[in-house]
Automatic annotation (TrEMBL):
Organism (species): Agromyces seonyuensis
Protein name: Zinc-binding dehydrogenase
InterPro entries to which the protein is assigned, alphabetical: ADH-like_N, ER, GroES-like_sf, NAD(P)-bd_dom_sf, Quin_OxRdtase/zeta-crystal_CS, YIM1/Zinc_Alcohol_DH_Fams
PANTHER family (UniProt xref): ALCOHOL DEHYDROGENASE RELATED, RETICULON-4-INTERACTING PROTEIN 1, MITOCHONDRIAL
Pfam families, alphabetized: ADH_N, ADH_zinc_N_2
GO MF assignments: oxidoreductase activity; zinc ion binding
Length: 320
């Protein structure tokens, strides 16, 4: 199969399109013919050699977590998924080979029917970002009517879904982004949008019950400063792993609850998200679709940190 691979960790130029052996489908896995693959910051971090990359056992490695495509093989004849079904889902790179490739083998528990109102490119933009937003906003923060929630990096992949889910479940949403994304973030349902470059969010946000922190202390001490907007016993959910090592101690000192979050592939959550998307309650914004050959450019853009919504790689033409 054709795949975008790396032979070693390093810069975006390490990404090369090449023929590699097809993945072997085993046990409960489905084999999916990938049409489009989402690009996520973790792909670039792994390519660069972060902690996750230390789990790579064989080279070359195919990166890429999420995908949309068509089922090629199922585990057994009466499986609920059928060959030809349009699906979207999330792999477990680098434990298994990734989605920047024509074929991916993934647990059937990681795959759900694609939302019928989306194109393949739009569907590939959903799994990791939207499941992360669901995990942070719904499962961890237990979003509810009237809850005051501040979402950082609201214009990005996770943030755009987080704002929409928080609003859908009745939260009073405040969101941070740069000035050029103000209208976009407001259109997602944020009640109040703060330009983090011209205002200090802690001066204007008012008291919050929850902060969904998609930045941490990697920029302007965003994590630490977030503690200042939370009510006593409020909750900060910090999503970028390793972005704020002293979070637990700092939060405890101030009487704030704090937790990290790590996304897990979950077909049931994908099915619920698919319903919300098809009902028009959640929309998907794709910033750009690039061909697989432009993987290096996609990684440069994602590392720059200012993608609006999602970046997607086209792996194959849409099937008829
Ligand atoms: N733990 C997990 O399971 C998990 C899962 C998914 C993602 N993550 C992590 O969560 C983070 C967010 O992921 P993502 O996919 O949403 O990233 P992304 O799409 O690349 O985020 C880009 C957005 O970040 C915004 N931004 C950049 N600096 C900002 C700042 N200082 N304050 C506010 N907004 C800022 C940009 O808005 P402007 O252009 O307006 O500045 C841009 O729209 C990443 O670190 C990712 O690795 C972790």
């Amino acid at each position: 199969m054709r795949a975008l691979v790396i032979d070693r960790t390093g810069g975006p130029e390490e990404l090369q399109v090449r023929e590699v052996p097809d993945p072997l489908r085993i046990s409960d896995e489905v084999l999916v013919r990938v049409v489009a693959a989402g690009v996520n910051p973790i792909d670039a971090k792994t390519r660069k050699g972060n902690r996750v990359s230390q789990a790579i056992e064989h080279w070359p490695v195919v990166l890429g977590g999420d995908f949309a495509g068509v089922v090629e093989e199922v585990p057994y004849a009466d499986h609920p998924l059928r060959p030809g079904d349009r699906v979207y889902g999330m792999g477990r790179v680098p434990r298994t080979s990734g989605s920047y490739a024509e074929l991916i083998a993934v647990s059937s528990l990681s795959v759900a029917p694609m939302p019928s109102t989306l194109t393949f490119a739009e569907a590939a933009a959903v799994p990791i970002a939207a499941m992360t937003a669901w995990g942070a906003v719904v499962e961890t923060a237990k979003v509810h009517d009237g809850q005051r929630m501040l979402v950082h990096a609201a214009a990005g992949g996770v943030g755009a879904f987080a704002v929409q889910l928080a609003r859908y479940f009745g939260a009073r949403v405040t969101a941070t982004c740069s000035a050029g994304n103000r209208d976009f973030v407001a259109s997602l349902g944020a009640h109040r949008v703060i330009d983090y470059r011209s205002e200090r969010f802690e001066d204007v946000a008012g008291e919050q019950d929850v902060v969904i922190d998609l930045v941490g202390n990697t920029a302007d001490d965003t994590g630490t400063r977030s503690l200042g907007v939370l009510r006593p016993r409020g909750l900060v959910v910090n999503v970028p792993t390793g972005s704020w090592p002293s979070m637990a101690e700092e939060a405890a000192e101030r009487g704030i609850r704090a937790t990290g979050y790590s996304v897990a592939p979950d077909a049931r959550v994908l099915s619920v998200l698919g319903r919300l998307i098809d009902d028009g309650a959640v929309r998907v914004h794709v910033d750009r679709v690039l061909p697989l050959e432009d993987g290096a450019e996609a990684h440069r853009l994602i590392e720059d940190g200012h993608v609006r919504g999602k970046l997607v790689l086209r792996v194959a033409p849409d099937p008829d």
